[in-house]
Amino acid sequence: MTDAPTAACLVEDLVALMRLEAVGEDRFRGESEDIGTPAVFGGQVLGQAVMAASRTVEPDRPMHSMHAYFLLPGEHAPIDYTVDRVRDGRSFTTRHVLARQRGRIIFEMAASFQTADEGVEHQSAMPETRGPEGLPSELERRVALGDRLPARWQVKGTEPHGIEFRRVEDDDLLAPAPREGGSAIWMRAVSPLPDDPSVHRALLAYASDHGLLRAALVPHGLTFMTGQLRAASLDHAMWFHREFRFDDWLLYTIDSPSAGGARGFCRGSVFARDGRLVASTAQEGMLRVLR
Hints:
Shape: globular
Order of helices and strands: HEEHEEEEHEEHEEEEE
Number of strands: 13
Structural class: alpha+beta
Number of helices: 4
Radius of gyration: 19 Å
Strand content: 35-45%
Oligomer: single chain
Helix content: 10-25%
Largest sheet: 13 strands, antiparallel
């Protein structure tokens, strides 16, 4: 019997996934992680694209926003990233990233970076909710289902990972009741991360794709776990408002203002434990109920 990987090893693997190999001028290659999804996890491509763009910008200009489109499903294989240095201004820097597999563009992203500056400041208040202490992780909840867990989730879906997610709501994983409102998820890396802020932003981008589209299912009592849906992320936007550490607990609150035309629109806010709003997200995804 092989020993289970330690938390530190899991996080080292995740950081290594974000550490891209330079293969030319402003060209990078990333490995792929198979988490059990049919195509490569969109969050992985988001995180690696954030790292690719950041590698071409000085550290004193952190990324403050990115807008991405998922163009084709990615394979569980290496991905090549090309960065176009669109503009280097006095305060703002713009980058464009294309991701390719087998010569096909599967993803594109525009990202903006800015020097540190001062101005007016305000934010929405962090909602009152239960803290992460005492909440079961999503991994623990899946394992607890035992034989009830769908077969396609029983291997990859029950393996330990470098990021831990704890849902505040206790919706049934296999048969959730329709309800109003959104969802809240606590998340963090399970072991300390390097101090490089670009790694923390890349991993938050990675994690932000987990559960976001699920907000469009909550009002309808649907779940991705039963195989009754065909879904795919179409785009993903993210804004980084304030500095944070991804190895501290972050609260991810998500909701879905609209769904229609086989698409669901979802949005999210990410808060540090001290109440600071550190990031915002938005995503539209394809959602089709299989009959």
